[in-house]
Design goal:
single chain, 225 residues, DNA-binding, mainly alpha, Endonuclease III, domain 1, globular
Length: 225
DNA sequence: TGCCAGGCCGGGT
DNA sequence: ACCCGGCATGGC
């Protein structure tokens, strides 16, 4: 067997190695229980994690950091508890949609959901109003341990920057397929990789001056992205 | 001060 | 099949 040299390694693997070497393990998803993962996944939609942390704290303080409790309290009370996460009335409705659906369809049993075949479980999650592709995959991966690659805005931006997808590309499934085609279906690997991409986006893509310090700067890229 | 954050929905072309 | 406004708080 001819050993594979560095330059012929898939770009997606090179990127992972560079990010992990530079940033180390990210310990995602930051939560104590899988229910907390699910709640956080909805709260963090288009919202900085910092604001989500406060909302999680409020829920914990009110003993409402479980799906059962969220299912039983009033939506407007829930909205007040999660106010700091922004778009709080929308998110309160979405959380209620989720818990109502889990109760009626799976008798409130998360194990029943995650026991489903992966595509079936994903379809189920997507049927809930307020759960889109990224939220569904984050729940599957970080709460269920299902090896599904999570694609977010930073992921597409970084792939555009490195010519891996077209300059205007943002197709969720296409981006997801790039990772799932190249990497073994390992939930720990997927989880670490997505966390590294988000951390990279936060630290190196926000301000122009920071992007030259990106661990991926040695790879071919378009500086204007 | 304005702009954005670990999206998604619903209505309009 | 896209495109867009709305949702809303806290941080820089």
């Amino acid at each position: 067997m001819i050993p594979m040299d560095r330059s012929s390694r898939p770009i997606v693997r090179q990127m992972y190695d560079l990010l992990y070497a530079a940033l180390g393990p990210q310990h995602w998803w930051p939560a104590d229980t899988r229910e907390e993962v699910i709640i956080g996944a909805i709260l963090t939609q288009n919202t900085s994690w910092k604001n989500v942390e406060r909302a999680i704290g409020s829920l914990r303080q009110a003993d409402c950091l479980t799906l059962r409790r969220i299912n039983s309290i009033a939506a407007d009370r829930l909205a007040e508890l999660i106010r700091s996460s922004g778009t709080h009335r929308v998110k309160a409705d979405r959380l209620k949609n989720l818990t109502r659906w889990l109760q009626s369809r799976f008798d409130g049993d998360l194990d029943a959901l995650f026991a489903l075949e992966r595509r079936a479980a994903r379809r189920e999650l997507l049927s809930v109003t307020g759960i889109g592709p990224e939220t569904a995959d984050a729940i599957l991966l970080y709460a269920g341990g299902v090896p599904t690659f999570v694609v977010d805005a930073y992921t597409n931006r970084i792939l555009r920057r490195h010519y891996i997808i077209s300059p205007d590309g943002s197709d969720y499934g296409a981006t997801q397929a790039i990772f799932e085609r190249t990497l073994p279906p390992d939930d720990r690997l997927y989880g670490e990789y997505h966390a590294l991409l988000v951390e990279t986006g936060k630290r190196f893509c926000r301000k122009r001056a920071e992007c030259e310090r990106c661990p991926l700067v040695a790879l071919p890229h378009d500086p204007s992205i």
